[in-house]
Known about the structure:
Blueprint: H1 2-40, E1 43-45, E2 48-57, H2 59-68, E3 72-73, H3 79-92, E4 96-105, E5 108-111, E6 136-139, E7 145-148, E8 154-159
Antiparallel strand pairs: 1-2, 2-8, 3-8, 4-5, 4-6, 6-7
This protein binds ligand 291 and calcium ion.
Amino acid sequence: KGEKGSSEDNGMQLAVRLMNEQLRTLQDNFNKFKKIFIFSIGKEVGRKIFVTNGLEYDYETASRMCSRAGGLVASPKNADENLALQEIVSKHDKRSFLGITDLHTEGTFKYSTGGTITYSNWHSNEPNNDKGNEDCVELNTDGKWNDTSCTNKKLLICEF
Ligand code: 291
Ligand code: CA
């Protein structure tokens, strides 16, 4: 019984060693793929990665597309993230939606995940809810925010 136990232990040790080797190979491949991905299409800021497909959609479609991909519509939480997004909209010369709206309560801008915004970079005299119809937020190429109609089509940028 003791002998059988130890041969089972040896088999287990071998299996664990092989799994560790495979895990290491998987991690190496994944890290390499991640580097190539970020180099080619992503923009990394801290632990966040911003990605655009270069196309424009209304807010509802943008929101659906980002969540289907396992992400969220980009929401800058600090000046670094806002600058990274500004670089993307400047490169494409298209304003983007942010994952921020006051659809729930007029005048109170919240993240799509809930919670009142903790960082903002409004253009002077914004948000103005022009024509009483501006519940979404667009990022301009100068990095400033403007509230705008959710049915406008803006550059899609998701965060992951
Ligand atoms: C004016 C300002 C904005 C307003 C915008 C929209 C149309 O900015 O009154 O507060 O949101 O018009 O009525 O433009 C967009 N992009 O929403 C003009 C440039 C943004
Ligand atoms: Ca506005």
